[in-house]
Write a structure and sequence with these properties.
It contains eight helices and seven strands; from the N terminus they run αααβααββαββααββ. By secondary structure, the protein is an alpha+beta fold. It starts with a helix and ends with a strand. Helices cover 59% and strands 16% of the residues. It has three domains: 2-76, no CATH class; 90-147, Orthogonal Bundle (Helix Hairpins), CATH 1.10.287; 156-299, Heat Shock Protein 90. α2 (57-113) packs antiparallel against α3 and α4 (160-170) packs across α6. Keywords: Kinase, Membrane, Phosphoprotein, Transferase, Transmembrane, Transmembrane helix, Two-component regulatory system. It is an enzyme of class 2 (transferase). InterPro entries: BphY/WalK/GraS-like, HATPase_C_sf, HATPase_dom, His_kinase_dom, HisK_dim/P_dom, HisK_dim/P_sf, Sig_transdc_His_kin-like_C. It catalyses: ATP + protein L-histidine = ADP + protein N-phospho-L-histidine.
Length: 302
Amino acid sequence: MYLLAIILFMVFITIFFVVTLGKLLMYKKQIRDITSQIKEFRERRTNKKISTQTVDKCIGNLAFEINEYLELYKKNEQEKIVFENTLKQGIANMSHDLRTPLTSIIGYLRLLENDEINKEDALKIIKNKTNRLNILINDFFELSFIESEDYELELKKVNLSNILSDEILSFYQAFEDKGIQPKINISNEPLFINGDKESLERIVDNLISNTLKYAEKNLEINLEECDGTIILKIANKCTSIDEKDVLHIFDRFYMADKVRKGEGTGLGLSIVKALMEKMNGVIKSKFEKQIITIICEWKRVN
């Protein structure tokens, strides 16, 4: 009886050892397989997730966490590529915009040196080109400053109805010169939001200025409240742009007329978007039947 107990114990120990060794070998194989897949991912031979067939919860959790990290890594890599491409395109566009007026200024200075042009005419043109350079550089650095993490706005309760009305009045002459009679619909009751007054003035100014560049007719400006959300809509008919333009309308240096005529910097709507985000607002655009609409939304404050 004692001998049988010893034999059974030895059999149990042997089975336990074999099972444990088998599991350890299986874990080793699975870890080796996961390591191999991570190496392939690191060497950019694959972009697939880690796949493993296991019933072990710990190994499964390990594979899951690794896959979560790899997804985050891929997302960061994609964002990095988009940022680098945007930066390259932005630098190329800015270089073009800087070079154009600079080349013109240099040309007119040479004409002045050779007395080949009227002095007053040349100085007037040089002044205009210099002003454009100043605006471009200021807009570029303003956008970079606004987009930085350190830039914060002091948000206060402000009456958006009053701000919009005042800004529209400041464009009265511009509407007259363009031959446009805007259809304006602003709620009679005060509409309050948490925002920065100067930034809101800049947003409205940029939106209306941009609209006037491309507007042909049927310009509409609406400010209303809907389910606790304040909605500003600026819409106009425009046949010189298409749906592709609208998709990129808030991109840096994007100019919807496809020809860089020197009438803007291509940064106005990018500045608007950056300021909206700093005020926890939402800005979007839509294009239907040759009507482009810019929509700004804020939460209402009582």
